[in-house]
Automatic annotation (TrEMBL):
This is MIP/aquaporin family protein. It is a multi-pass membrane protein. Gene3D superfamilies: Glycerol uptake facilitator protein. It comes from the Bacteria. It comes from Saccharopolyspora gregorii. It is found in: Membrane. The chain crosses the membrane at residues 6-28, 40-58, 86-106, 132-151, 171-195, 222-244. Keywords: Membrane, Transmembrane, Transmembrane helix, Transport. InterPro entries: Aquaporin-like, MIP, MIP/Aquaporin, MIP_CS. Pfam families: MIP. Belongs to the MIP/aquaporin (TC 1.A.8) family.
């Protein structure tokens, strides 16, 4: 597969991921959306199935849609390092584009929301208790679980074309929805579980650029945590996978 094809599929898959993922948070947050006050469980399910949709679209490239996944697979020797920059740039641009499309879908609700300064959480994550070192640990742990699951789950591996693709033997990419929902329900409470630098940084960039009435700060001071934490977690998962017995 060419680098251009990798770029296209990863951009499209990550855009759908953040369109639907940010969309479910907008639905729960914005006062005049039908899902207002739908709660944390709705957000978890929405993000889980957003990952399923994005991964299904990006299937030709192995459905990474997450720089932490790409880096973990590269450490494990499943993805050539020369392809990593193309994956990551496409994922960040896709994350930004999907978040912008989410805003377009909910523009009227943004315009009439009674707390426009508090809308950053629709796009990116924030901790409930701000302590950067421990917030980082939380993101590392959650991402480690996700990436190790992707590498080790039965059905994942190299296809006939030599590219790594993940998926459960029985459920395919639907299985990833369950692991993301599980991580959100069990480990997402402290930081909102970014577990994906593109999922947080791309929408944060979109928030900073979009003409949202009365919006607040993009909180760049915290923005490094949901980038560095998932990267460290993904790299650690790839390193651990190297020493595990072959499945």
């Amino acid at each position: 597969m060419s680098l251009g094809e990798i770029f296209l599929w990863e951009l499209m898959g990550t855009a759908v991921l953040t369109l639907m993922g940010c969309g479910v948070v907008a639905n729960v947050t914005l006062r005049k959306a039908l899902g207002n006050n739908g709660g944390w469980l709705l957000v978890n399910f929405g993000w889980g199935f957003a990952v399923f949709a994005g991964a299904s679209i990006a299937e030709p490239t192995g459905a990474h849609i997450n720089p932490a996944v790409t880096l973990g697979l590269a450490v494990d020797g499943q993805v050539p390092w020369s392809q990593v920059p193309v994956y990551v740039v496409a994922q960040i641009i896709g994350g930004t584009l999907g978040a912008a499309l989410c805003w377009a879908a909910y523009k009227l609700q943004f315009d009439t929301h009674d707390d426009p300064a508090g809308t950053l959480g629709i796009f990116s994550t924030a901790p409930t208790v701000r302590n950067a070192p421990w917030n980082l640990v939380t993101e590392i742990i959650g991402t480690f679980v996700l990436v190790l699951w992707i590498i080790q789950t039965p059905g994942s591996g190299r296809g006939d074309d030599g590219a790594f693709s993940f998926g459960n033997d029985a459920l395919g990419y639907a299985a990833v929805a369950f692991i993301v929902i599980g991580i959100g329900a069990s480990l997402g409470g402290p930081t909102g579980y970014a577990i994906n630098p593109a999922r947080d940084l791309g929408p944060r960039i979109a928030y900073a650029l979009l003409p949202i009435r009365g919006k607040g700060s993009a909180d760049w001071g915290y923005s490094w945590v949901p980038v560095a934490g998932p990267i460290i977690g993904g790299v650690l998962a790839g390193a651990v996978a190297l020493v595990l017995p072959a499945t």
